[in-house]
Amino acid sequence: MAQEIITIGQVSLSALLFVLLTVYLNHLLANSRDKLKIRREQGHILSMAFEPEIRALTHTDQDCRLIMNQDAYQKHEAAIRVFSRCLSWFDRFKLRKMWHHLAMVKTGRRTYLPFYEQYADFGSLDKRRKIRPLVTKRIQEIISFANK
Fold it and tell me: 119-134: string of b/e by CB count within 10 Å (b at 16+)?
């Protein structure tokens, strides 16, 4: 009696298991002790990059477009880029998704443009009350991800 190889479409079950095991090992190795220390340090730097904007959003009454401006975008993007280097591919994907949710607008299927202007309230107190908690929540999600 010949032993049959189980296949799913063009892929054998053993190849699928090998890929899943490789992904799992990559995730474990990305979180080794040394990398974890570097991740904590880079996470702290990322938190400090967002700190002035969080403070301004929660403690001042400035228009959001004056707080979330081009300089803030460049500073945040640089911190995100440096922090993402010490993450596994899956955590990089999650961080990129959070970053796009905060700072980008989707213009095509896979095309995003920086757009902090979406948070401009133009002096409208009603719009400011709606926008500030949203911006703060999105920033805090990124910070909490960096500090975990």
Answer: bbbeeeeeebeebbee
Q: Across-strand partners of 106?
A: 112
Q: How far apart, in whole angstroms, are the C-alpha atoms of residue 47 and residue 51? A: 6
Region of 66 (left: φ > 0; alpha: ψ -120 to 50; beta: rest) is alpha
pLDDT per residue as tens digits for the range 128-137: 778 888 888 9
Q: Indicate the Cα dihedral angle 62, 65, 70, 75, nearest 10°.
A: 50
DSSP classification of residue 111: -
Q: What is the pTM of this model?
A: 0.71
Phi, psi of 12, deg, nearest 5: -80, 160
Domain ranges of the chain: 39-146
Place of tokens 């400011």: 128
